[in-house]
Amino acid sequence: MPEQLFFTIEVILNGLMAGVLYSLVALGFVLIYKASGIFNYAQGVMALFAAMTLVGIMEGRIPFAHLINAILGTKIHHFGWHVNAVLALILTMGVMLLLAWLVQKVIFKHLVNQEGIILFMATIGLAYFLEGVGDLMWGGDIKMLDVGIPQGLNLWIDETTYNMFDYGFFIDNLDIYATVIAAILVFVLVGFSQYTKQGRAMRAVADDHQAALSVGVSLNFIWIMVWTLAGFVALVAGIVWGTKSGVQFSLSLIALKALPVLMLGGFTSIPGAIVGGLIIGVGEKLFEFAVGPLIGGATENWFAYVLALLFLVFRPQGLFGEKIIERV
Amino acid sequence: MLSTTEGYMTPDGRQIGGVVMEMKNITLKFGGVTAIEDISFDIHEGEIRAIIGPNGAGKSSMLNVISGFYVPQQGEVFFRGTKRAQLKPFEVARQGIARTFQNIALFEGMSVLDNVMTGRLTHMKAGIISQSLWRGPAEREETENREICERVIDFLEIQSIRKTPVSRLPYGLKKRVELARALASEPKLLLLDEPMAGMNVEEKEDMSRFILDVNDEFGTTIALIEHDMGVVMDLSDRVVVMDYGKKIGDGTPSEVRNNQAVIDAYLGVSHD
Fold first, then answer.
1. What span, in angstroms and rounded, lies between the C-alpha atoms of A234 and B222?
2. What's the confidence (pLDDT) of residue B63?
3. A213 and B128: CB-CB below 8 Å?
4. B159 pLDDT exceeds 70?
5. What CATH fold (topology level) applies to the domain B17-267?
6. Do the chains contact at A218 and B181, CB–CB below 8 Å?
7. Cα–Cα distance between A19 and B62 in angstroms, integer?
8. A57-73 confidence digits (pLDDT tens)
9. Does residue A75 lie within any of the structural domains?
10. Which residues of chain A neighbour B94 with C-beta distances below 8 Å?
């Protein structure tokens, strides 16, 4: 019997760590939605783009090589050098900053005060555009991403738990690192929004545009900042997911996994994104473990969405979302 | 007395300084509608200047021109002696012009203290790293700004609700918090858009007292909009009267009160 219990605990632990990855993606959505009311469909593609850029820079690939070769008839692909992971990370952050600036300058600056659905449509356009540009810049092949995060079974945990309980827990190193990275990221984000001038201005813009203007906050600056932050979060999510399963198109589909997380946690709550991700991570692993065998498995594909549906019926604002009450 | 660019003495013996803000031949149109037509007036340092008029006279539009929310088609705005370029509202705020809104624009999700602290945003200079680490200049700066905010909160007698989320406050208190936020920025010019709108008599009296005290204590220059004649006459040093986008009177309360055009506008004489 204890074996059964330990196995359940192991499932929960793995679920929690999978949940952290969902939270990571959901965070990017929440940041932008809170500050500008834009539901950013392109968040997943941003993660893909960030990971592609990181790999491209690290491997010394020449951006738009295929395009250049097709036009000039040359055969260039690589600069012939490799870039250190840390330096490549900084450069990629620079690219994400540039992207944020462009997105605000070219698209959303002209859509201020438009309806939510129009802003949403614009982000769908952005998603396809970015996907195309990503492929054009770095090529559409499946890339391996290795920034030095160890992968595979953590032997120490396995051995220690085996000695203690006679049952070795299977925990992936990458999951542990991902959890630590996500925790640090959340810590930094919360600190930033609560204790810095820019964070206070960001919360002000999220609350009331007019009032924010009247205390001297530039909306444009804040929106660029928020898109940059979302870009950084996308980069982190892209690194973790890309290390796990390679940098390829399917990486952008993690955005779909973030949707039920947001419905659970609420679209405007950073803690909500975390808790929602954890609940879905654990829920789908436990469900697969307990009910899966009875109904033929593969429950992980739909469990999160059914859970989200239930929430839509009984608690539409999510666990931590703001309930909208209009006084009449 | 009114034409001097120098200061003047009020009947109750306060010395008013020179011109802080001057509006010259302002015309503002929305499509075919002329909201403001060729209006000029000035605001002196340390005075309480009211803009009054019946509903739809263009008062709020005028305030929005001053605070940069609207850009007039014609006319010039002079602030502290220099002609103001076309500025965005947040740039106007950074120049030291604070405002409140007719329909209250507070940060509903934040506490009263946080709302007032946002008034200090334009005064914060510390770098982001130093802020995150909460060391050195950032710590000193935050403490200083906090002190100023607490003083304003004390002054407006809202200590008891410092930590309350604004969304839970009644209307009258919200108006006061908005005033506190504007005051916290230590404005060179404070714009109040219908500070007494929707208040009962008691709240109106409180607000009047606060406006007078602010002017008295900090020497803040105040421009306010009101359509309630009675309140304004007791409060202000000089009054601009608008009707249908035009200026129909300008002077001390007693001068304005005896102005035939003003009486007509308020009693509703037919315009032919």
1. 47
2. 93
3. no
4. yes
5. Rossmann fold (3.40.50)
6. no
7. 54
8. 999 888 888 888 888 88
9. yes
10. 216
Query: Would residue A309 count as lying in a domain?
Result: no
Q: In terms of residue numbers, what domain contains A159?
A: 2-249
Q: Name the 3-class secondary structure at B23.
A: strand
Q: pLDDT by residue (tens digit) across B167-185?
A: 999 988 999 999 999 999 9
Can you say whether the dihedral through the CA atoms of B77, B82, B86, B88 is positive or negative?
A: negative
Say whether residue A315 is in contact with chain B using an 8 A CB cutoff: no
- For chain B, the structural domain boundaries read 17-267
Closest residue in B to A189 (Cα–Cα): B132
For all residues of chain B together, what is the average pLDDT? 87
Rounded CA-CA distance A290/A284 in Å is 10
Query: Could you tell me the pTM of the whole model?
Result: 0.83
For helices A43-58 and A2-36, the axis angle rounded to 10 degrees is 100
Q: What is the mean pLDDT of chain A?
A: 88
Instruction: Provide φ and ψ at A143, rounded to 5°.
Output: -110, 145
Q: How many domains is chain A partitioned into structurally? A: 1
Q: Which of A188, A206, A216 sits opposite B121 (nearest CB)?
A: A216
Q: Which amino acid is at A257?
A: K
> Which residue's structure tokens are 């995150």?
B132
Q: What is the ipTM of this complex?
A: 0.82
Q: Does A112 touch chain B (CB under 8 A)?
A: no
Q: How far off is chain A from B155, nearest CA to CA, in Å? A: 20
Partner A contacted by B268 (CB < 8 A): no
B40-99 pLDDT, tens per residue? 999 999 999 999 988 888 999 999 999 999 999 999 999 988 898 888 899 999 999 999
Query: A205: distance to nearest CA of chain B, Å?
Result: 9
- Answer whether residue A284 is part of any domain: no
Q: Which residues of A touch B106 (CB under 8 A)?
A: 208, 211
Q: What SS3 state is found at A233?
A: helix
Closest CB from A192, A200, A211 relative to B106? A211
Nearest neighbour of A196 by CB, restricted to B90, B117, B132: B132
The CA-atom distances, in angstroms, between B248 and each of B33, B46, B242 are 19, 24, 6
B37 close contact with A: CB closer than 8 A: no
Confidence bin at A80 (pLDDT 50/70/90): confident
Q: For helices A43-58 and A85-102, what crossing angle results, to 10°?
A: 140
